[in-house]
From TrEMBL:
Quaternary structure annotation from Swiss-Prot or TrEMBL: Part of the 30S ribosomal subunit. Interacts with proteins S7 and S18. Binds to IF-3.
InterPro entries: Ribosomal_uS11 (IPR001971), Ribosomal_uS11_bac-type (IPR019981), Ribosomal_uS11_CS (IPR018102), Ribosomal_uS11_sf (IPR036967)
Cellular component per GO, a single term: ribonucleoprotein complex
GO molecular function, one term: rRNA binding
Protein name: Small ribosomal subunit protein uS11
Function: Located on the platform of the 30S subunit, it bridges several disparate RNA helices of the 16S rRNA. Forms part of the Shine-Dalgarno cleft in the 70S ribosome.
GO biological processes: translation
Protein family: Belongs to the universal ribosomal protein uS11 family.
Length: 127
């Protein structure tokens, strides 16, 4: 039986990347993608070693952003576009951490979904 050799992982080198920060009250998920939207790396408050309510803190999102920034530098990324989504506490601290890591942030865009009329209300209660 012929044995297949393990395929070598392609080395990706990027000048510019996109970071998506999804921040809820319970957690912050930070995803590094290429400009086409293919995920390269992600981290969250949970992968930074926190559990429970501590995942939603700005410090947890700071550590997660630091992980993503180190990985981005490995890929050779110098410039970033940042898309932020959600109402959580870790939004600003994650962006500050990315800047402090030496990555140049070009755009910051808030992609938080806003209801234009909301859901239909419940039926009135009959007495």
């Amino acid at each position: 039986m012929a044995r297949r050799s393990a395929q070598k992982k392609k080395k990706i080198s990027l000048e510019k990347a996109v970071v998506h920060i999804q921040s809820t009250f319970n957690n912050t998920i930070i995803t590094l993608t290429d400009p086409a939207g293919n995920t390269l790396f992600w981290a969250s408050g949970g992968t930074a070693g926190f559990s429970g309510t501590k995942k939603g803190t700005p410090y947890a999102s700071q550590l997660a952003a630091d992980k993503v920034a180190k990985e981005a530098l490995k890929y050779g990324v110098k410039r970033l576009d940042v898309y932020v989504k959600g109402p959580g506490a870790g939004r600003e601290s994650a962006i500050r951490t990315l800047q402090a890591a030496g990555l140049a942030i070009e755009n910051i865009k808030d992609k938080t979904p806003i209801p234009h009329n909301g859901c239909r209300p419940k039926k009135r209660k009959r007495m």
